[in-house]
Write a structure and sequence with these properties.
Elements: H1 10-31, H2 48-62, H3 69-86, H4 89-97, H5 102-114, H6 120-130, H7 142-156, H8 163-170
């Protein structure tokens, strides 16, 4: 809703954000454990890790207006529901077994940590996984490399080794533009 001055109504924006956070809470309650499987259309399936990570990213984005009591309360409510999923046995196993995907699976933990819900044991587990020989065992597309760097920056401001070099050489940003010919 836009007011007479052409600005968004802050109360309406708060209401909408709280509604989105309420939906996120319901999604975590109903889908974070098992995800969603559509028996008729497999393209509609959603893995629990995606639900957990995307909800955590939403919470982090919403935290930019966490000075609002209603928003802060909703963030806290969803975060507390998300913590057991983001740091549960399933996530711990994947972080340990798939070192090259550790940051992908740790994203929800990293977001929760930034929101003020730390877990030193999970941090230590990620560090160990990132120090393993398997940490580089998977080729990454350029946008996935950038996602990993973002996760590292969110986590502790640590940049992965040679991240800038990888970005420069693998990213389309460093490539010449293809001329558009009709």
């Amino acid at each position: 809703m836009i007011n007479k001055k052409g600005c968004w109504n802050k109360q309406d924006l708060t209401r909408r954000l709280c509604h989105a956070l309420n939906i996120a809470r319901q999604v975590v309650e109903q889908l974070a454990s098992e995800g969603y499987r559509d028996t008729e259309e497999s393209g509609n399936n959603v893995r629990p890790e995606k639900i957990i990570s995307e909800t955590a990213v939403l919470l982090l984005a919403a935290s930019s207006v966490a000075n609002n009591e209603k928003v802060r309360a909703e963030i806290d409510r969803v975060a507390r529901l998300l913590i057991p999923h983001a740091r549960g046995e399933r996530m711990r196993l994947v972080v340990c077994l798939e070192g090259s995907l550790a940051l992908d699976y740790a994203l929800a933990h990293v977001c929760l940590r930034r929101l003020g819900y730390p877990d030193r044991d999970f941090d230590a587990l990620i560090r160990l996984s990132l120090q393993s020989q398997a940490r580089g065992g998977r080729e990454r597309l350029p946008h996935r490399v950038l996602e990993q760097e973002l996760t590292m920056r969110l986590w502790e401001g640590i940049k992965p080794p040679n991240a800038k070099r990888r970005q420069r050489t693998r990213s389309a940003v460093n490539q010449p533009l293809e001329p558009y010919v009709r």
